[in-house]
Design goal:
Strand content of chain A: 5-15%
Number of domains of chain A: 3
Shape of chain A: elongated
Oligomer: homodimer
Largest interface: A-B, 48 and 49 residues
CATH architecture of the largest domain in chain A: 3-Layer(aba) Sandwich
CATH superfamily of the largest domain in chain A: Response regulator
Strand order of the largest sheet of chain A: 2-1-3-4-5-11
Distance between the termini of chain A: 62 Å
Structural class of chain A: alpha/beta
DNA sequence: CTGTTAGCGCTTTCAC
DNA sequence: GTGAAAGCGCTAACAG
């Protein structure tokens, strides 16, 4: 790398001032067509590219945003990320992808580092911070959108799924099939969606006149392995369970494996419902009944909303609540 | 956002020069212990954070890197990305994640935008650019590491898997099981790994004295759906095939589905081997025999190598070639 | 239409 | 030990 071409280089070559070059670069008017052409020619010939760094220092805009997720190798998040990246690319933005790995301290440090990098905004997906930490960390950011969690303030955008309704739908489906002993593998304790889905689950039971049994609910990590472990525990403690509603599809696949180990047949000896409808759920055997979630849209819309806010939109840049849909497959027909 | 605290603010409050604050912030010596403490106290009290933007403008270092992949929602790439992000985080770097979506033009534009953002380096995973475009696009970057593709120059780092050996291993395994009519679903035509795996496939056949049949090789997109389609085509044209080596696990799962449609039993009526060993391959039914690839390590090591190069390492910052390993499961026991 | 001046927030160099 | 001056590459505000 010898020397990066600067505006001064172009200006010298074109025998104009730096300001004139700046005007051409930014397509501002108030420039004679001939100068513009001459400068543009030189820009092209020299292969000049403006330094976004220098520009950012004065405009206070970087053309970057941060996307904070739990774990990009989880198919759910990688699909959300794809949605974000897709609209970011279309708008000329670049996105910093950061994994919190379920660690609130790490999440805090990430938010800090993104602020240090002067991102124009952040998208926080499934944050595991408590309200106080969340709001203080977000105070350093001019714009933010929360996915899968309400913000409690109009300062922060939100992109939500009606998780409670999803839990309700799933549980009702199980009840309609005659199940009354239905367990819930509830996901991480700090997960807002996990709590909401639990609300829907309980509402469906109550509506059906089935008494709630707290011991049928069990927290778990949102990964296959822990799904298997917790299912084994739950079924060992409560063999009477005839159905299981799972926090997400990964956990549900874990439950599937547990049943295989136990020789318990699905759906006859245990019906299982997952959540998210990741591609995997259609590919396992038996295939998974699940609640569809608009993963890609959650991401793309979150980015749209963030952009709207960055560009000064206030009222009509509305938050969105998506509705889940039950996808019926073999594990709970 | 009212007003971001700057060094000048701290300097004023501490009644020292900006330079002194800078020294404290950067831990440089040549400062009395008392001044250092006093300044540090004020930094903490004011919550001052240095502007990486301003710093970058003078140091020419941004603490950011670009990661370019085909599609982050492909489990292979999302795992590579996790590896990259993990070591980046540990070293205080942030990573821009970009999807090319198999589009060379888009890949070119992405590389351009990353250069505009002054990233300290880029990691290009499974680039689909031809050599000329690749090298001209990389000329704008001070440091680069290629994953899954040789660079042909010591200027650019490389992180490789011995793909030919993987193809050889897989094919040999099938031959050892008595197969002689073995097809190859070869992946995208511009894929370097696809070509290499093909080389290994052919070598194994030749060694076994089995004549090569080009019509048994078929390009395909590296996704489930196209795997299904191309398998249906291939089996319809060549029903004599008794085994199939697939570019990656997604294609192999696609082949699995094709067989289900056809009522062709696996592995008895068609043996299938995939590549990469993504989590999915152990979860489908029948489970997939495949070539394991060190996805996370490919990412983490690529980032380590890039950092070494950024930090001025020249000779002993060596490229790495990983060895694949055959993972035998049900689809080709 | 075009140029000049100032300054974004920091580090580098050199002086004291 | 500490500070003053200059400048990284650009844009905003005002002149002319």
């Amino acid at each position: 790398m010898s020397h990066r071409i600067t505006m001064a280089d172009v200006a010298r070559e074109a025998e104009v001032s730096v300001m004139t070059v700046s005007r051409v670069v930014n397509g501002k008017d108030g420039i004679s067509i001939t100068t513009r052409q001459r400068v543009q020619e030189i820009i092209d010939r020299l292969g000049y590219r403006p330094s976004t760094l220098a520009r950012s220092l004065v405009t206070d805009r970087t053309g970057t945003v941060g996307l904070v997720v739990i774990d990009n190798s989880n198919p759910y998040f990688s699909e959300v990320a794809r949605g974000v990246e897709h609209v970011a690319y279309a708008e000329g933005y670049n996105v910093f992808l950061c994994n919190t790995e379920e660690d609130p301290q790490r999440e805090l440090r990430i938010l800090q580092s993104l602020s240090d990098k002067h991102v124009d905004g952040v998208i926080l997906c499934s944050s595991r911070l408590d309200d106080a930490d969340l709001h203080s960390a977000l105070a350093a950011h001019s714009h933010a959108v929360l996915v899968n969690r309400p913000s409690g303030t109009t300062e922060i955008g939100e992109m939500l799924l009606d998780d409670a309704y999803g839990g309700y739908l799933a549980t009702k489906h199980l009840i309609a099939s005659g199940h009354r002993a239905i367990g819930y593998l509830a996901g991480p304790t700090q997960s807002f969606s996990g709590a909401q889905r639990g609300t829907g689950y309980r509402q469906a039971l109550t509506e059906a006149g089935i008494p709630l049994r707290p011991e049928w609910e069990q927290a778990c990590l949102p990964v296959v392995e822990n799904g298997t472990e917790k299912t084994l525990e739950l079924l060992s403690d409560h063999p009477e369970l005839s159905a299981l509603f799972c926090y997400n599809d990964l956990v549900a696949v874990g439950a599937l494996k547990a049943c295989q180990q136990l020789g318990r047949r699905i759906p006859d000896e245990l019906a299982i419902i997952g959540f998210d409808d990741i591609p995997l759920s259609a590919l396992v055997n038996p295939s998974l009944t699940t609640c569809w979630s608009p993963k890609y849209e959650l991401g793309s819309q979150a980015m749209e909303l963030l952009l709207a806010r960055i560009n000064g939109c206030t009222d009509d840049c509305t938050n969105v609540i998506f509705q889940p849909e039950l996808v019926i497959r073999e594990s709970a027909p």
